[in-house]
Amino acid sequence: MTDNSNGANAQNNETQFAVQRIYIKDLSFESPKAPQIFQHKWEPAVELSLNTKQTELGDDFHEVILSLSVTVKTGEEVAFIAEVQQAGIFLIKGLDNAAMHHTLAAFCPNILFPYAREALDNLVIRGSFPALMLAPVNFDALYAQEMQRRQQEQAAN
């Protein structure tokens, strides 16, 4: 007779990752100087800020929100401000704390970024501006930099 409880425990400890849903949580566009801004020479200065947020939903489900905010100026005038919160629900199971933190802070945002970039491009085009075509972001490198910064802070304290 075999011990089925060991097999059940092995299955329960198995690593699992699955995208359950990807969706826009919030979307905003503002062009405060329209229509006069369209008469200016188009020399855009782009300022991008990004942020991530994670929420545990229970039963190994996690919501990850990638927020992108873009302010574009031409000269001193703000041409437009576009913001998107691209979110996803992910099933993540069987990871240790370090791997879970990396998955939520880097791997999931890497999945969400192309969706957020497309949403921003579509939004900006609908505002009658050229597409942003944001360059890809390496969330793994950003995560590594943040971990290194935290280690240096801890060493200093």
Automatic annotation (TrEMBL):
Source taxonomy: Bacteria, Pseudomonadati, Pseudomonadota, Gammaproteobacteria, Pseudomonadales
A Gene Ontology biological process term: protein tetramerization
Annotated protein name in UniProt: Protein-export protein SecB
Compartment list: Cytoplasm
Main location: cytoplasm
Gene of this entry: secB
Membership in a protein family: Belongs to the SecB family.
Organism: Ventosimonas gracilis
InterPro entries assigned to the protein according to its UniProt record, in alphabetical order: SecB, SecB-like_sf
Taxonomy, superkingdom: Bacteria
Cited function: One of the proteins required for the normal export of preproteins out of the cell cytoplasm. It is a molecular chaperone that binds to a subset of precursor proteins, maintaining them in a translocation-competent state. It also specifically binds to its receptor SecA.
